[in-house]
Design a protein that fits this description.
transport; amino-acid transport; symport; transmembrane; cell membrane
Length: 409
């Protein structure tokens, strides 16, 4: 038994996760009534979600409190890359929706949804999240609020005694160690998630929306494999695909099955450490990316909105389409502050074309039907690109300084 455990631990995490996926599929097809298997997935996601807020608070506080004058971080560059990627994702989705127009068979019965009334409400929600009570922010995993408090406390602690800073760093390291224990359970957790997904949702219900799914997933793959690599190349002047595939493999796979950018924060932190990135930068950029780097959400908003537009035969000029790209990018950045995520921002985009709210809510219903795959691909794109652009900003800085750029994988 001990030999089996040692051999298992020698395998890379990605290989262990792939084994978990295969076992999950086999169990779902052979013993679909064994519902107890799904609890492993729920426990894994809950464990990640519970440890992530504390990890973010302590890491950001420690990094900022120990920040030395003259040591430059790459946060400005990272935020610019986040914004460019999200806008280009919305634009790509708009272009794809015109080339491959999709019409919807609208559904009814979507209840208890309260979409934002406008972009002002989205921004207002974000502002109130920033000034949230710190205890409440931790309890509800409000990462905007957690980041705000962590940054303020980190700045205030810069003048603290070294013993205080070291104690904070020790707590940060301890939580990071707990995170490693949780991540080692990923194969078991993802086995449960795969089992639950197949036995609960199946794939038959998605066939009626095959064309819509193809456009959505096609756009997200285009962003992940064409647009983002181009952004990386323009900044680093190096072949981007080694870094791109590393991020997709080690971050995207887990994000695909957890379907939560917040739950994937510890995974991304560990990957940044593995890549040898500056901790002062990634301790802030990764949790920030989980809230504002939403290329996948921009794709979802644009594609489903234009599907509704095509369904009603509404003519759209280039200028309006460009405005939709900007609106979807801005709205996507606020998706984390709205209950229901990117789908509930669709009525906001639909209002741009005069589509009434009761019809737009039916489009949201379609989104929930295809959410099994749509949300998985969206989260995988969003979360993996957090690491991608954090690394890109650092490699670009090294290139400008004349240093050799090495991708540590």
């Amino acid at each position: 038994m001990s030999t089996l455990v040692r051999n298992w631990n020698r395998l890379s995490l990605v290989k262990r996760i792939l084994i978990g996926i295969i076992i999950g599929i086999i169990l779902a097809l052979s013993v679909p009534n064994a519902k107890g298997i799904a609890i492993f997935g729920s426990l894994f996601v809950t464990a990640l979600k519970s440890v992530a807020p504390v990890l973010v608070l302590l890491l950001v506080m420690s990094a900022i409190s120990k920040h030395k004058k003259g040591h430059q971080t790459n946060m400005k560059a990272v935020i610019v890359l986040y914004g460019i990627s999200t806008f280009l994702a919305g634009l790509t989705a708009v272009i794809a929706s015109f080339i491959f127009p999709v019409s919807l068979s609208l559904v009814k019965g979507v209840k208890d949804l309260t979409p934002p009334e406008g972009i002002v409400q989205v921004l207002k929600t974000l502002l109130f999240q920033i000034i949230d009570n710190p205890v409440n922010a931790l309890m509800n995993a409000n990462y905007i609020g957690i980041l705000a408090w962590a940054i303020l406390l980190g700045i205030a602690l810069r003048s603290a005694h070294d013993h205080t800073k070291n104690m904070l760093a020790n707590f940060s390291d301890a939580v990071s160690h707990i995170v490693k224990w949780v991540i080692n359970l990923a194969p078991l957790g993802i086995m449960g998630l795969v089992f639950d997904s197949i036995t609960t949702n199946g794939l038959a219900s998605l066939l009626d929306y095959g064309k819509l799914l193809l456009v959505l997933i096609g756009c997200m793959l285009c962003i992940a494999l064409v647009v983002n690599p181009l952004i990386v190349y323009l900044n680093t002047r190096r072949n981007p695909y080694r870094l791109v595939f590393t991020c997709l493999k080690e971050s995207g796979i887990t994000a695909f099955f957890t379907r939560s950018s917040a739950a994937n924060i510890p995974i991304n932190m560990r990957l940044c450490e593995k890549l040898g990135l500056d901790k002062d930068t990634y301790s802030v950029s990764i949790p920030l990316g989980a809230t504002i780097n939403m290329a996948g959400a921009a794709v979802t908003i644009s594609v489903l909105t234009l599907a509704a537009v095509h369904t009603f035969g509404i003519k759209v000029d280039f200028g309006t389409a460009l405005i939709l790209s900007v609106l979807s990018a801005v709205a996507a950045a606020g998706a984390s502050g709205v209950a229901g995520g990117s789908l509930l921002l669709i009525p906001l985009a639909c209002s741009l074309f005069g589509i009434p709210n009761d019809i737009a809510i039916q489009v949201v219903g379609v989104g929930f039907i295809i959410g099994v795959l749509q949300d998985s691909f969206e989260t995988a794109l969003n979360s993996s690109s957090d690491v991608l652009f954090t690394a890109t900003a650092e490699y670009a800085k090294k290139r400008k300084e004349g240093k050799e750029v090495m991708v540590h994988v």
